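ugh ok fine here u go
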Amino acid sequence: MEIGDSRSWIFYYLICFVALLWVGFLFTQDTMLWVGLLLVLVVLGFSIILFVMLLIELSKERAKKRESDS
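structure:
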């Protein structure tokens, strides 16, 4: 996922929001709690992975900018 690609980020956040709403519904119904917990772990896991990838990409861009300035 590219930093400047806002469509992908909006789509990702909408999917995460829908997944967490579904988890909230499952928790209020007291059904399939393990599915809800697994879904929360998946959403959090992907979010952490994307955050780390974003930090790596930003640091690479910052390094390129420093090299071009020197």
